[in-house]
Design brief:
Blueprint (H helix, E strand, L loop, with lengths): L10 E4 L8 E4 L3 E7 L17 H9 L1 E2 L10 H10 L44 H7 L3 E6 L16 E4 L7 E3 L2 E3 L7 H13 L6 E7 L5 H4 L3 H21 L6 E6 L25 H4 L3 E4 L13 H11 L14 E5 L3 E6 L2 E6 L5 E5 L15 H17 L12 H10 L11
Parallel strand pairs: 3-9, 3-10, 5-6, 5-9
Antiparallel strand pairs: 1-2, 4-11, 7-8, 10-11, 12-13, 13-14, 14-15
Helix pairs in contact: 2-8, 4-6
Length: 429
């Protein structure tokens, strides 16, 4: 058992890229990270004032709202691997036209860091994790997770003193046009019951708590609207805040609330793309996520274009960890290495590069936020600049050796249970 600690307030100097430098941050007594799976930014207040999400509104009033936050990928294992390690996920292999297979070894996008023959984890053991670094900094680390793709032994549990998996695999539910996954017994109510029990057994008030909810993700399988799923997620967040408040743990806690990715609903684009959160290419509705921090972090620009790996650095900064490790992308960049596409975004422009024929599309998000027109011929200089950068990133983020891994039976069951196997009918044009 870890001893209780009285840290007081520790000022640490940290240069956080893109947010001014150096900045001073408090080392908080407690850090709580809440991830609400598949939550679009435009379905919670204050991004959408008419949406009924009172607990998000409460956080917004007391904290910071990062308007330009994005998931590092549109799929959970990739996005969460980036948030947990601070690195950029990638399916790049020895050829740009032949990405790595979608398997339990590759679906974190970090295979390039694995030690050949020694490390088969989805998150390679060579990479420090968020929980591991906070545990080294003296925090009791606790995770309560409801997404079965994150269950052991993929490496997401590494660094946690307590790791609780809520739910179990179940057959996919048939919804017209899709197979939709719904693991059994993974409700927010059950997750919060586990949180409450763990908090009541806590060996110290100095802890890092990570909680992952699936209420927004599971709307189709429950036969409800996406908005109703978001409402359930907001209620789960409110219940968690109540659990902390009832135990006098909210004061002295920095709360991070974010999503791993969004969801495609009825949007139409000039490229076909996949449904739900299949990406290919990665449209804004599957990338743009809410990100709230309460109380605010002094000196951090809430208008900065942040990714999941930036959230990783902000959490570590709050915990007084001053050396979060290298970054794979420049500030403001986003690069997704997908099965059929590569997608790159910086500033107002966004590129899709299609693997099968090498065709390069460009979107001006300022003039065309709905991604309805190809602007490649109107901005050839931007297209050329993006093409060069994407080629460089393809090399920088690639696995240098051939990949012979196959989808295991366990991998297939996990994917099927969450509806992640992409049917041929949904392959992009």
């Amino acid at each position: 058992m870890l001893p209780a600690r009285s840290l007081g307030t520790l000022l640490v100097a940290l240069s956080f890229a893109g947010c001014g430098s150096p900045e001073l941050a408090f080392r908080q007594e407690r850090i709580v990270l809440v991830v609400i799976d598949t939550l679009r930014a435009d379905h919670v207040s204050p991004h959408a004032p008419r949406r009924r999400t009172p607990h998000f509104a409460r956080l917004a009033e007391k904290g910071q709202v990062f308007e330009r936050a994005s998931g590092s990928y549109y799929q959970t294992t990739m996005s969460m691997a980036s948030l947990f390690t601070g690195r950029t996920p990638s399916l790049e292999g020895t050829s740009r036209t032949a990405p790595l297979a979608w398997t339990g070894k590759n679906w974190c996008g970090l295979r390039r860091f694995a030690r050949e023959g020694l490390d088969d984890s989805c998150i390679p053991e060579s990479l420090p994790t968020l929980a591991g670094r906070l545990r080294e900094a003296g925090y009791w680390t606790v995770g309560v997770v409801t997404n079965t793709l994150l269950f052991q032994p993929r490496g997401f549990e590494r660094g946690f003193d307590e790791w609780v998996e809520v739910g179990r695999l179940a057959p996919a539910v048939a919804v017209p046009g899709y197979q939709v996954g719904l693991a059994e017994d993974r409700s927010a109510e059950r997750a919060n019951e586990n949180v409450a029990w763990l908090l009541d057994q806590r060996p110290t008030d100095h802890f890092f708590l990570y909680v992952h909810y699936m209420e927004a993700h599971d709307y189709l399988a429950h036969g409800i609207s996406y908005a109703h799923g978001v409402h359930r997620a907001d209620a789960a967040l409110g219940e968690l805040l109540g659990l902390l408040e009832a135990r006098s743990l909210l004061e002295g806690t920095t709360l991070f609330v974010v999503s791993d990715h969004g969801e495609r609903l009825e949007e139409e684009h000039f490229t076909k793309g996949g449904p739900l959160h299949y990406g290919n290419p990665a449209f804004e509705e599957v990338l743009h996520v809410p990100f709230f921090v309460s109380p605010p972090i002094a000196g951090v620009d809430a208008q900065a274009a942040l990714r999941g790996d930036d959230v990783h650095r902000l959490v570590l900064m709050t915990g007084g960890v001053t050396h979060p490790g290298p970054k794979d992308l420049e500030d403001g960049e986003l690069f997704t290495s997908e099965r059929y596409y590569q997608t790159y975004r910086k500033g107002r422009f966004k590129s899709y590069w299609r693997r099968r024929d090498g065709r390069h599309f460009l979107v001006d998000l300022e003039a065309d936020p709905g991604e309805t027109n190809d602007a490649a011929t109107r901005h050839p200089e931007v297209l050329a600049r993006h093409a060069e950068r994407m080629a460089d990133l393809s090399r920088d983020l690639a696995l240098r050796t051939a990949d012979a891994s196959e989808l295991s039976d366990d991998d297939a069951k996990r994917l099927e249970a969450l509806g992640y196997v992409l049917p041929d009918a949904h392959a992009p044009e």
